[in-house]
């Protein structure tokens, strides 16, 4: 969108420039010749570089080179690498939001939300490397937040309680996403799921972890639970953790009701 009469230009200028770009609020003087480039082409190229070579490989010059333009050509559209990172981050948050299904259990919907967020970390390993500097401000990220708030629409909660649950569930999704991302990378680099889970090192740890120094870890390690040497009766740890979080939310809702 362009800055229109309904938008207070002075207030909008308080936004970081990368965020303003993500909303389509662009000053005409920063555009290059018509048809030469576009913000989307630049962002897509940067994402492709980051997906293949990591976030550290992304630079304005590298992106320009990949597109066959000079670095100065890019600066007519995006004025800094920091702004480019904001746009990259928001672009990969453009995930499909499921249609609302009447009567669908909220726990199932929250599970879908969590695993959709995890998938972003797995598809774009660099995503979790961008530091969090504020609440989400860009439109695609806010659309994902709106999805989670839709799930809680009829909960007997005030706005702050809903936002706290949003933070709780989203933080768990982030933690799971980083673990899944790192496991994916380890396996691509030649590790096995067994190595990642520690079973390969179980025998060595049993010699090193002594009960006098690790009195609480030692019996769990010796039983084989720490390194998955025995059958896990609770199933997938990440699924189990999410279910316990949802149990806590359900308990709180019952107390509120």
From TrEMBL:
PANTHER family: HTH-TYPE TRANSCRIPTIONAL REGULATOR RUTR (PTHR30055), TRANSCRIPTIONAL REGULATORY PROTEIN (PTHR30055:SF151). Gene3D superfamilies: Homeodomain-like, Tetracycline Repressor, domain 2. It comes from the Bacteria. This is AcrR family transcriptional regulator. Keywords: DNA-binding, Transcription, Transcription regulation. Residues 59-78 bind DNA. PROSITE patterns: HTH_TETR_2.
